[in-house]
Amino acid sequence: MNGYNFAYLDEQTKRMIRRALLKAVAIPGHQIPFGSREMPLPYGWGTGGIQVTAAVLGPQDVLKVIDQGADDTTNAVSIRRFFARTAGIATTTHTSDATIIQTRHRIPEQGLREGQILVYQVPMPEPLAKLEPSRAETTRMHGLAEYGLMHVKLYEDITRYGHVSISYDYPVMVAERYLMSPSPIPAYDNPKLHRNPALQLFGAGREKRLYAIPPYTAVRSLDFDDHPFRTTRAPQHCDLCGDDASYLDEVVTDNQGGRMFVCSDTDHCESRRAKQEQPA
Amino acid sequence: MTDDRMLSASGLNLRFGTVPALVDVAAELWPGEVLAIVGESGSGKTTLLNVLSGHMAPQSGQVLYRAPDGTETDVHAMSAPMLRALHRSDWGFVHQNPRDALRMGVSAGGNVGERLMAQGSRHYGDIREAAIAWLAEVEIDADRVDDLPRTFSGGMLQRLQIARTLVTHPRLVFMDEPTGGLDVSVQARLLDLIRGLVARLGIAVVLVTHDLAVARLLAHRVMVMQRGEVVETGLTDQVLDDPQHPYTQLLVASVLAA
Amino acid sequence: MNAIQTHALSKQFLLHLQGGVRIPVLHEVEFHARFGECVALSGPSGAGKTTLLRSLYGNYRVGSGALLVCHHGQMVDLATATPREIVAVRRDTLGYVSQFLRVVPRVAALDIVAEAARNVPREEARDMAAALLQRLNIAPRLHSLPPATFSGGEQQRINLARGFIGGHPILLLDEPTASLDAENRDIVIAMIREATARGTAIVGIFHDAVVREAVANRVHIVLPHQEAA
After folding, report:
1. Each residue of B2-16: pLDDT tens digit?
2. Chain B residue whose CA is closest to C105
3. Does A227 touch chain B (CB under 8 A)?
4. Closest Cα in chain C to B31
5. CB-nearest partner of C87 from B220, B245, B250
6. Domain tally for chain A?
7. Alpha-carbon distance B44 to B16, whole Å?
8. Same domain, A268 and A178
9. Are A149 and B114 a contacting pair at CB < 8 A?
10. Could you report the per-residue pLDDT of A187-210, keeping only the tens digit for each?
11. Could you tell me if residue A227 is inside a domain?
């Protein structure tokens, strides 16, 4: 296969990553350190997600890769081509046809099913990083389940803005035990984390951590009883397919301030349009 | 007669290299009582406070704590999670420098409410109300509840630290030179506040101070330490007005009268 | 019945800072005071009257001998009692009015007195304190001020109010009228008489012969201790 091992990583590395993944699945939401390898692209470009995908990929898998919901942006295309070349596996842009979906910063609109794996690219795995600079202290906080500090942050937001100001990478409690960063997905996507039939794996290459949410695990976005978690989306509908419930991208169309709103999930949008164009 | 001591320590020894920090120290504390530990720098008083509160382990000896339900635990045999939980609920610790205990980037209300949130409070309105109530107890204006501690004076920071500590109604509070470094008038206000709160809430206090006047004002009993040893202990006014040990006599004689 | 009594009470001061010089002050003192009686301690200056009074309060440590106080019907020996026991005796039984008010910063005169009231709700304590201060000619406009800037006489009257408001069964008074004018002196005399009539045992040092004559049922003479030749 062009001189590369299947899916680029050597088998020992894949074994190491799989061991870490098993641990991660056994302790939902808890960050597991792993020996992140040098990949043929720099940190910050999805090396964590790629290593996780490489470790779980098999010859029969069908891979979909999205970046901010789109299959056709540069990064998604590059990574999909990377795996096609080093593993020879089938690829797709259809969520329902994929067995493994690697994603940067979005969860597909289409509900996932048992047997599918969603691999998230994670820049910063530590949800408390912005509040507590000491890694030793955050480790202790996770170990002792002392998460008062995160609630203080939410309290401060409500005090200052009247509502929680976190719009992406909204912290969650996994199985009511570990505080977790769901990666920079919009808060809008958080409800999809909860009791998802698919296996959700998270990889951070630069920070050398991975974590997991097994299927059907309880995932709760942090909130207060009198300020419950709520999702927000742009009030518009998609200018291409008309959906008023999907997460939208705002696209600037000209230099006069013209703009349009389109579904961020390209597969979702295309599928809807395909159905609409079918003769009745 | 049943033993109802809240804290009892015996045989405490600790050396830092060749320097004796605690030499066969014993101490006891009853509910609602204020015990002052006085001494000069190097006397071992802060070390004793740290050992009693579980922050530092002695090389020999033990510290026993009796919980409200009567069960007695060895403070240094407790697991780390248990000790941390104890410090967040039944116990409190007021540091000499409030900046060590406060989150300077979090509002006053957030600072006071943090212990409540750590204990599982999930109602924003209730937490905020409790924070405002405690700010009032320490004489901080309610309209400062959303301000950052960065904008507070030294005395206000110390009062904020006290509010943050008392919000969970601890039975036992350790205080390390709570008025150290403050202006005299600010000290007076703080001492009056502490005196009132302790009496009204029936809190037991172990208070470390080098200032005998603070001990006289706040404490029922006082322990005098010198080079790791307890040289004299007893009723505060008795120890300060009729000192028996040479070192105590020296300390008392050295106090400047205004 | 004896409210407070001593047996062979001895006390000396050992001054380590002055080369260990010993100053014996009290030698095998036999003293008693009954409920409803006022005993005046008298004797030459420096003889040990204040030392004896402070020892009775537990403020000075007894060297040897017994110091018995009738506390809740039992005789408690303060010479051997634990600090907690002494605190309890002082809370319920034994009151003390020092010669000078030890000023607590910031606390209003009214609160200084009200704090010393026992077993009454706060509002009632404040009313009692106000009444007592007025009786002692402390004008209402001064009640909310901390006494640090008051005159010696005013401070002493606040001190007296604090001592009397508690209604302790045994009261020790150290020169209660020393800084007072004649009018206020007479008010204090009346207060002492009312207390003894109520059954309070009072032990006092009264420099002023007039006061002593007016209140004391008995005089206990304290003589300076003579070292055996």
Report:
1. 578 999 999 999 999
2. B188
3. yes
4. C84
5. B220
6. 2
7. 11
8. no
9. yes
10. 999 999 999 999 999 999 999 999
11. no
